[in-house]
């Protein structure tokens, strides 16, 4: 059954604030402002408007959800339901002492208790769903407008239409990838301002994502990187992101970005033990045609004016102030000795720790380390506008580490290790070569797992990896993390336990938010909207 949903459309044409909470305000889609979509300038603004649809819901809340569930960062604050998002069920110290949270139950219980419109901002499950379907609808708007016979474009109009379609299909592929990689099911919504109540499995959502990537690739195969192309596409990319690894992608760079994301979609949506040789070989094919070292990619930065993260509302800023976000001891323990990336990014303050049982909410919220700002040589965090850069989608390092993992899993261990060495060199890690060290396939897989944790901190894949490696399952089912480093003073003195066991017991996929279901009950035959775990 189709349902018409009128989404607030004026922001992409006339506004630039990313932290609006009334993003679903209703407006007549036939309003006069939409006549701008018959002009080239209007279409460029529509393309740029995709970025605005992400909002606070994505740039800060969603990305932090992934970071903290992957135990790369942690937060003890209750805002947006965060304290429950990363509440592990228990920590067992090496002497057998069991530490449980002082409040609440398991993560699944607490998140489901708050999966309701009645709790407002505390419903953590709503944010990625909301932001990605807004992005998807903006892409639908572009696809609809580009077919309008009244649309007037200068120069090579057909090439510009291909770019517009590719832009829309790329973002639809991205949005469906995020939905399908997070929720147990989703909706395929490919018509402007229309939804439906036919919920499909996450596998079907991922298939739709890849179909959109393929559609974008098909459009780009007939496009040349002329000056006109660069100016037209460049108008749809925020100017303050066109530095560092960001910028205007050539058609071939863009295609390689999509190949990398398609490889990610294979990798992160199955457990390691569920992967087949065909899966690994598909990743090899995609990654060998994926992002290269000097390619431009999709990035986000802050800015002094008209930025998209309100300068302060994202991980790179919040990880340097107060209690909002801190690096996890379990991330720190992944670094090998003498890794330059560790030395330039993390430091222990004079008192010996940064957080200890933060806000009295448990020792999972403890760390010795603080982040070193970019201005002092770090890579990740800054309170200065424009300094920090996050990868929106894939990166060269992620592409290469997927290729390395596929090679290792297929028995080509030395080839995989050589790729890991190359990634480390690319990031100036300063580590000795692991290729030629004679380690086994299992040992190589562990080196790969740790390298992904370290090298891809800016890619937001920690939760996906924790899920596929089995850490999120209950300890009773073979999950959890052993040999974990935990800082605590449970016995009255500060101790660093290096052999603790953490029973995360997290949801591996999230339920469909009640914010959706309250107004859109699943049709008969819909896929389940509640995750089995």
Automatic annotation (TrEMBL):
Presence of the UniProt keyword Plastid in the record: no
Q: Which domain of life is it from?
A: Bacteria
Q: Which PROSITE patterns match?
A: PROKAR_LIPOPROTEIN (PS51257)
A UniProt-annotated Pfam family: SusD_RagB
Subcellular location, principal = membrane
Record-stated family: Belongs to the SusD family.
What name goes with this protein?
SusD-like starch-binding protein associating with outer membrane
């Amino acid at each position: 059954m189709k349902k018409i949903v009128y989404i607030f459309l004026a922001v992409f044409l006339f506004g630039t604030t990313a932290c609006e909470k009334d993003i679903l305000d209703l407006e007549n889609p036939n309003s006069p402002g939409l006549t701008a979509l018959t002009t080239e300038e209007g279409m460029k603004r529509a393309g740029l408007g995709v970025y605005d649809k992400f909002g606070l819901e994505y740039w800060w809340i969603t990305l932090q959800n992934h970071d903290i569930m992957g135990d790369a960062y942690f937060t003890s604050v209750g805002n947006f339901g965060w304290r429950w998002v990363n509440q592990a069920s228990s920590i067992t110290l090496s002497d057998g002492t069991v530490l449980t949270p002082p409040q609440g139950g398991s993560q699944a219980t607490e998140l489901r208790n708050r999966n309701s419109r009645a709790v407002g901002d505390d419903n953590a499950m709503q944010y990625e769903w909301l932001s990605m379907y807004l992005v998807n609808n903006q892409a639908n708007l572009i696809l609809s407008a580009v077919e309008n016979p009244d649309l007037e474009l200068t120069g090579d109009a057909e090439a510009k239409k291909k770019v517009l379609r590719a832009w829309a299909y790329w973002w639809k592929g991205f949005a469906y990838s995020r939905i399908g990689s997070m929720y147990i099911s989703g909706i395929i919504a490919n018509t402007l301002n229309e939804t439906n109540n036919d919920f499909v499995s996450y596998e079907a959502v991922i298939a739709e994502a890849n179909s959109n990537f393929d559609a974008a690739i098909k459009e780009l195969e007939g496009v040349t990187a002329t000056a006109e192309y660069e100016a037209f596409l460049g108008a749809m990319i925020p100017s303050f992101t066109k530095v560092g690894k960001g910028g205007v992608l050539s058609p071939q760079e863009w295609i390689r970005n999509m190949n990398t994301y398609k490889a990610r979609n294979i990798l992160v949506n199955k457990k390691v033990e569920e992967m087949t040789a065909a899966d690994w070989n598909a990743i090899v094919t995609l990654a060998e045609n994926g992002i290269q070292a000097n390619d431009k990619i999709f990035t986000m930065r802050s800015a002094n004016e008209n930025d998209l993260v309100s300068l302060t509302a994202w991980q790179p800023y919040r990880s340097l102030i107060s209690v909002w976000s801190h690096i996890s001891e379990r991330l720190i323990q992944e670094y090998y000795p003498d890794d330059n990336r560790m030395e330039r990014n993390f430091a222990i303050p004079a008192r010996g720790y940064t957080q200890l049982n933060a806000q009295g909410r448990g020792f999972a919220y403890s760390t010795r380390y603080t982040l070193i700002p970019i201005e002092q040589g770090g890579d990740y965090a800054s309170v200065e506008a424009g300094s920090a850069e996050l990868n929106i989608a894939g990166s060269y390092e992620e592409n290469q580490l997927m290729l390395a993992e596929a090679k290792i899993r297929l028995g080509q261990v030395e080839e995989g290790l050589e790729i890991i060495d190359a990634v480390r060199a690319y990031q100036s890690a300063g580590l000795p070569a692991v290729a030629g060290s004679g380690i086994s396939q299992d040992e190589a897989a562990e080196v790969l797992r740790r390298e992904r944790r370290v090298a891809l901190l800016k890619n937001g894949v920690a939760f996906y990896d924790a899920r596929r490696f089995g850490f999120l399952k209950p300890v009773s089912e073979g999950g959890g993390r052993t040999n974990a480093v935990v800082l605590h003073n449970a016995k009255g003195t500060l101790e660093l336990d290096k052999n603790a066991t953490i029973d995360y017991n997290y949801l591996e996929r999230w339920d469909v938010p009640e914010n959706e279901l309250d107004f859109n009950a699943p049709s008969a035959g819909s896929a389940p909207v509640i995750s089995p775990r």
